[in-house]
C-alpha cells in the first residue's frame, strides 16, 4: 500500500482514532499487511506510538541496526495525551489477531533505544508473562501508600529502587499485552485527566493481566534518577515521591551496545524517562557532566554511528493508523525519516 506524505508539523491534523478496530478492519489488515509483515520476521516485535518522527530517532535507528521488527502507530495525527493508550490498543489488536503469542514490546519512541537484539533471557521473560517498565519514583500522583499494600512492593524495595510502574515500556505475548493496555486505557477514560502514566499505575495496582514490574531492568532500564529523601513534592503540575536516592547511571558499566548492569545483564531497552540527554550520555559514555553537542549534531551522530549499512536504511516499518497510510501499511526507515 503506498504511503503519502504526512502533514507538516504545525499544520491542521486529524485527531487520532480512539475506538477499537472493528472485526472487518482487523481481518483486512491482518490478511493484507500485518500477516505478511510478520511472516518470517524475527521475534520479538517493537511497537511505539508516535505522531511525529523525532530527530534524533534512536529507537528506529537501533531497530534497523539489529533487524528488530518495528511498528509505529499514530503518525501524522494531532498529538493528544489521551491518544497513546488507545493507539497502542488498536495496534495490538492487529498484532494479537495475526499472532496471539507473538512476543511484543512497546516503548516511548522519542527517548529510548535498543541495546541490541533480544537475548535468550529477554525472549524467556517475554514468553513468561506481561511486564511493565519500572522506575524509582511515583508520579503524577504519589501512590506510595497504594503500592505498599502489595506484598511484592515491599520485597522489591528490599532488593532495589525500581518499584513503581512506568508507562514508557511494557512487553509480553501480544494477546496478554493487549489485555493489560485495554485495562490501562479503560482506567484513563474513567480518570479525571488523560494521563497514561496514572492509568498504567491504576491497571498495575488492580492486577490487570497479571502484569509484573521489570524491577531488574533486564527488559526496560529507566534512566530517570531520584534525588533526596523522597517525600512527596510538586514538580510542575505533578506530585512526585520515591523511597530514597537512586542514580541509574552509576549502576551501569560500558557504553552503547556494550552497556551492562553490575550483574552483567544487558538491558534490552534504555529509556531516558523524558530527559533525553541521559540516553545520549549512556550511549556515548559521556558521563553526567560533559556538555553534549548541539541537537543537530546529536542527530547526525546517531545516524552515522548506528546505521552503517545501506541495507539497514531499507529496514521495513509497519505503520498502524498513520494519516498517510491508513489503518495499516508498510514503509522503510529511510522513507520514514523523509516524511
Can you describe what's shown?
- The chain is an alpha/beta fold.
- It has one domain.
- It is 35% helix and 20% strand.
- It has an eight-stranded mixed sheet, sandwiched between helices. A three-stranded mixed sheet has the order 4-14-9.
- It is globular.
- The relative contact order is 0.19.
Give the oligomeric state of the chains in this entry, treating copies of one chain as homo and distinct chains as hetero.
Answer: single chain
Helical content stands at: 25-40%
* Approximate strand percentage: 15-25%
Radius of gyration: 19 Å
Shape label: globular
Number of helices: 12
Q: How many beta-strand segments?
A: 16
Cα end-to-end separation: 16 Å
Order of helices and strands: HEHEHEEHEEHHEHHEEEEEEEHHHEEH
Question: Pairing-aware structural class of the strands and helices?
Answer: alpha/beta
The total number of structural domains is 1
Sheet with the most strands: spatial strand order: 8-5-7-3-1-2-15-16
Largest sheet: 8 strands, mixed
Low-confidence parts lasting 5 or more residues at pLDDT below 50?
1-7
Average predicted local confidence, pLDDT: 92
Q: Which descriptors apply to this entry?
A:
alpha/beta, globular, three-stranded mixed beta sheet, eight-stranded mixed beta sheet, 339 residues, disordered N terminus, 16 strands
Amino acid at each position: 500500500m503506498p504511503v503519502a506524505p504526512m502533514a507538516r508539523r504545525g499544520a491542521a491534523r486529524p485527531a487520532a482514532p480512539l475506538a477499537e478496530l472493528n472485526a472487518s478492519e482487523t481481518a483486512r489488515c491482518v490478511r493484507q499487511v500485518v500477516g505478511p509483515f510478520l511472516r518470517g520476521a524475527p521475534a520479538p516485535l517493537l511497537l511505539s506510538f508516535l505522531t511525529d518522527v523525532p530527530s534524533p530517532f534512536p529507537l528506529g535507528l537501533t531497530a534497523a541496526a539489529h533487524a528488530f521488527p518495528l511498528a509505529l502507530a499514530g503518525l501524522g495525527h494531532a498529538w493528544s495525551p489521551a491518544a497513546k493508550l488507545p493507539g497502542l490498543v488498536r495496534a495490538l489488536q492487529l498484532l494479537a489477531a495475526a499472532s496471539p503469542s507473538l512476543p511484543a514490546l512497546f516503548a516511548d519512541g522519542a527517548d529510548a533505544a535498543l541495546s541490541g537484539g533480544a537475548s535468550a533471557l529477554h525472549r524467556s521473560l517475554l514468553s513468561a508473562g506481561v511486564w511493565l517498565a519500572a522506575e524509582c519514583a511515583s508520579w503524577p500522583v504519589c501512590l506510595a501508600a497504594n503500592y505498599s499494600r502489595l506484598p511484592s512492593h515491599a520485597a522489591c524495595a528490599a532488593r532495589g529502587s525500581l518499584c513503581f510502574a512506568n508507562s514508557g515500556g511494557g512487553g509480553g505475548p501480544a494477546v496478554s499485552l493487549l489485555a493489560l493496555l485495554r485495562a490501562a486505557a479503560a482506567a484513563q477514560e474513567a480518570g479525571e485527566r488523560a494521563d497514561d502514566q496514572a492509568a498504567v499505575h491504576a491497571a498495575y495496582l488492580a492486577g490487570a493481566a497479571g502484569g509484573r514490574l521489570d524491577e531488574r531492568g533486564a527488559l526496560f532500564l529507566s534512566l530517570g534518577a531520584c534525588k533526596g529523601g523522597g517525600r512527596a513534592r510538586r514538580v510542575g503540575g505533578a506530585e512526585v515521591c520515591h523511597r530514597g536516592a537512586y542514580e541509574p547511571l552509576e549502576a551501569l558499566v560500558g557504553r552503547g551496545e556494550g552497556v551492562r548492569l553490575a550483574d552483567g545483564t544487558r538491558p534490552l531497552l534504555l529509556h531516558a524517562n523524558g530527559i533525553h540527554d541521559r540516553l545520549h550520555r549512556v550511549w556515548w559514555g559521556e558521563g553526567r557532566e560533559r556538555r553534549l553537542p548541539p541537537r543537530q549534531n546529536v542527530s547526525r551522530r546517531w545516524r552515522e554511528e548506528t546505521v552503517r549499512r545501506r541495507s539497514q536504511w531499507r529496514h521495513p516499518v509497519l505503520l498502524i493508523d498513520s494519516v498517510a497510510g491508513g489503518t495499516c501499511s508498510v514503509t522503510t526507515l529511510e522513507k520514514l525519516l523523509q516524511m
